[in-house]
Each structure stands twice: as structure tokens, then as C-alpha cells.
Specification:
alpha+beta, Phosphorylase Kinase, domain 1, Transferase(Phosphotransferase), domain 1, five-stranded antiparallel beta sheet, two-stranded antiparallel ribbon, 9 strands, binds adenosine-5'-triphosphate, Kinase-like_dom_sf, transferase, ATP-binding, Prot_kinase_dom, Protein kinase domain-containing protein
């Protein structure tokens, strides 16, 4: 552990592990406040891989985005020979993935509350020129049962004035078709992924399904969006309309994050089966 980190924070128990690092709970020695510290093992990110370059970008991107109520905040950054230590907001340790597993589906009113927070975070990223590129339930942390924070900017990219990106980044169920087609793509890949997240919250299963990664990719590319009656009978037509506009293969017709936030399902709490 870095000396400066130990001087400023008391490092407590391990609370999680990812591919490149370990997350600990810590408390500030000056205020007693609790935080999480994510320590990235630099040896695992060495080399020229896209992963390595992006992971080292994560603190820069968090700095650019902070503060936002629904994005994990970076408070301090320390570096020693072996690690990069990021002191960030401490969440409950639960994420949207756990919540969906525990509940099967999320009632529409609750889904709207959490999804609106997610889209505010995504819209803020896009206004700052940041594309997350790996929006999925595991990266949406629960600060409490009714507050989410978007996390894990290890695959994110900064783009200038509508600049396009390339390279296959993301997770099979959530990846946008234009990424799979190897085309240049922009920030609307995040809108597609957030649409998949919303669908899963309401249905309990993904809109584009396959047994293998290849089968999932084929389903995504077909983009055949269905709302099985048995699952969606209690779900409002308004949210189905929003899902069609987010999970739209034609990027020029797909909503932007700002347009999603202006959709009636978000702005008009009374629309549809929200109170069910
Ligand atoms: N800010 C946080 N507050 C509380 N727990 C956290 C926080 N950040 C991460 N965790 C926990 O630590 C685990 C590891 O997080 P990390 O971001 O290193 O990796 P990951 O996103 O799960 O995986 P990978 O980096 O391999 O994709 C998470 O699954 C979560 O349980």
C-alpha cells in the first residue's frame, strides 16, 4: 500500500475483487468518513492492450465527470510502483444485477426511479464527451435501495465533438449492433445498453438471447425486439414505446440520452402502469 494512502486513510476489509484490482473499505483519518479504495494492480495492465490503456484512463475520466449524484465520485488518487489506488464513494456492495436476481423483476415504478437516475448519469457523461461503453447491471451500484451510481469506467472513452470510436468493447447481452458490425460508433451505444438494462429490469430476462456469445451476437444483430404477453401484460405501453426508441438498430433514429429523459415514461409519472 502506498505510504501517502496509509497516511490519509485507514484501510479496512476487502469488499470485492475485479480482474485488475481489489476493492477495500477505508476511512479518512481526518474526518472518519467511509470510502472505498479500488487498487489496480499495474502489472496486470501492462502492455499495449486496450484494457490496459483504458484502465489507466479511469481516474482521469472520473475526475472529468465528478461530481454527479449518480456517478461514482473519485476523491483521491495515489500511485506507487505496483498499484494505482482510487478513493471513491462507498456503495452498499450490492448492484443492480444482484437486485434483479433477488427480485426476479423490478416493479415498473421502482424501475423508473432507478432508470431515470441511470439516464441522468449517462446524459452527464455524454455532455462531458465520455462514452461509458460497458453499461450493464453489474456496473450500476446501489448506494441504497433507491439510489444508483454508475461505476466502472474501465472501458470508457473520451470523444471530442461527435468524434467516432471503433473496437469491440462491451458485454455480449448489452453491446450495440453497430459495435458488433465493426462500424465506427458513437455515444448512442450507451443508450442501446441502457435500453437492454431497462428491458431486463422489467422482464427478468434479456431482449436478445442466446446460449453462447455467438448466438447472443446473432440475436443482437437481428434486433428483433419482442414483448412476450405473459411477461409484459402488466407493463405500460409507454415504457414499451421508450424501449423501441432505445433498442433501435438505426442509430440515426435511436434516441439520445437527453431524448430518453424527455420521454413521457420518465417525465409523466402518471403514465401507464407506473404505480403497479
Ligand atoms: N464503490 C464501491 N463500493 C462498494 N463496493 C464496491 C465498489 N466498487 C466496487 N465494489 C465491489 O468490488 C467488486 C470489484 O469491483 P471492480 O470495479 O474492481 O471490478 P468489477 O467491475 O466487478 O470487475 P472487472 O473490473 O473485472 O470488470 C465489485 O463487484 C463490487 O462488489
Amino acid at each position: 500500500m502506498s505510504e501517502a494512502l496509509n497516511r490519509d486513510y485507514l484501510i479496512c476489509e476487502e469488499i470485492g475483487r475485479g480482474r485488475f484490482g481489489t476493492v477495500f473499505r477505508c476511512t479518512s483519518r481526518s474526518t472518519g468518513d467511509s470510502f472505498a479504495v479500488k487498487s489496480i494492480d499495474k502489472s496486470l495492465t501492462s502492455g499495449d492492450s486496450l484494457d490496459a490503456q483504458c484502465l489507466l484512463m479511469e481516474p482521469k475520466i472520473l475526475h472529468l465527470l465528478s461530481p454527479h449524484p449518480h456517478i461514482i465520485q473519485l476523491y483521491n488518487l495515489y500511485e506507487d510502483e505496483a498499484h494505482l489506488h482510487m478513493v471513491i464513494d462507498l456503495c452498499s456492495g450490492e448492484d443492480l444485477h444482484n437486485l434483479i436476481i433477488a427480485n426476479g423483476v423490478i416493479p415498473e415504478a421502482e424501475a423508473r426511479l432507478l432508470f431515470t437516475q441511470l439516464m441522468r448519469a449517462v446524459s452527464h457523461c455524454h455532455k462531458c464527451g465520455v462514452v461509458h461503453r460497458d453499461i450493464k447491471p453489474d456496473n450500476i451500484l446501489l448506494e441504497s435501495r433507491n439510489t444508483v451510481k454508475l461505476a466502472d469506467f474501465g472501458s470508457a472513452e473520451v470523444v471530442m465533438d461527435g468524434e467516432m470510436m471503433n473496437g469491440v468493447v462491451g458485454t455480449p447481452y448489452y453491446v450495440a449492433p453497430e459495435v458488433l458490425l465493426g462500424r465506427e460508433y458513437g455515444e448512442k451505444v450507451d443508450v442501446w445498453s441502457a435500453g437492454v438494462v431497462l428491458y431486463i429490469m422489467l422482464a427478468g430476462f434479456p431482449p436478445f438471447y442466446g446460449e453462447t456469445a455467438l448466438e447472443i451476437f446473432e440475436a443482437v444483430l437481428r434486433g428483433n425486439l419482442r414483448f412476450p404477453v405473459t411477461t409484459f401484460q402488466g407493463v405500460s405501453p409507454t415504457v414499451k414505446d421508450l424501449l423501441r426508441r432505445m433498442l433501435c438498430k438505426d442509430v440515426s433514429k435511436r434516441f439520445s440520452a437527453e431524448q430518453v429523459l424527455r420521454h413521457p415514461w420518465i417525465t409523466n409519472e402518471e403514465s401507464g402502469a407506473g404505480s403497479s
